[in-house]
Every structure is written in structure tokens, then in C-alpha cells.
Design a protein that fits this description.
Protein name: Mannose-1-phosphate guanylyltransferase
GO molecular function: nucleotidyltransferase activity
Distance between the termini: 39 Å
Order of helices and strands: HEEEEEHEEE
Number of domains: 2
Mean pLDDT: 80
InterPro entries: Nucleotide-diphossugar_trans
Largest sheet: 3 strands, mixed
Structural class: mainly beta
Keywords: Nucleotidyltransferase, Transferase
């Protein structure tokens, strides 16, 4: 049952048989496919898509350190939040459109004031 639910939520990652030493992680609701990949890391999430050879993948932290966009998906104790649209204007104002899922209170405990 869990496998069926996961396949419904996220398409099954697909790699061709000639893909060697390649890892694919797909957190999007669209298909991601690797054909003939060798020594690759492919990660697709709401925050972006990374395609890198394994030797270069540790450099990603240095490349994204100056990004000032908030995370597009966050899991919290109360549920999760997914940003659908984010815009930052020249006058430093921001507009965020997001969807949130709140778990029922009985599933977690929050301290009461």
C-alpha cells in the first residue's frame, strides 16, 4: 500500500539500463528520467534541479550560498508548507503564495500558553 501511495505522490524515478553509478532523487510531481548517465547525481525538488557528476556535487553549497530565495518546501511539526510563487520587488517588499497542510492536533503536541 505504501509503495502505491508513494508512486501516486511522486512519479517513479526512471533510469535507462546503461546509466552507471548514477543516483536520481525526484521530489516533484512530474517525471524525471536519466538516459545513459554515468557517475551522476540528479536531484529534483521544489527548490531546484541539480545535475552533477559525483566528483563535483560537493561544490553545490558554494554555488548556492548567495541565494536569497526562501525554501520552496518546508516540513514542520504542524505539517508542511509549499511555496507556489515568490516575488521580491525593488522596494524590498515580498509577495508569497503558498499552500499549507496542517496535521490534526491529536498527532502532535504543542505547548499551550
Amino acid at each position: 500500500m505504501l509503495k502505491e501511495v508513494l508512486e501516486y505522490l511522486y512519479p517513479v524515478p526512471r533510469m535507462s539500463e546503461d546509466s552507471v553509478n548514477t543516483h536520481l532523487i525526484n521530489e516533484l510531481d512530474i517525471p524525471v528520467t536519466v538516459l545513459g548517465g554515468k557517475d551522476l547525481v540528479v536531484a529534483a525538488s521544489p527548490d531546484g534541479i541539480l545535475v552533477s557528476d559525483k566528483a563535483s556535487s560537493p561544490k553545490v553549497k558554494g554555488l548556492i550560498k548567495d541565494f536569497d530565495q526562501p525554501p520552496m518546501y518546508e516540513e514542520r511539526i504542524w505539517g508542511w508548507s509549499r511555496t507556489l510563487d515568490y516575488t521580491k520587488y525593488d522596494d524590498e517588499q515580498e509577495m508569497v503564495t503558498q499552500t499549507d497542510l496542517y496535521r490534526r492536533r491529536k498527532e502532535f503536541q504543542l505547548p499551550l500558553p
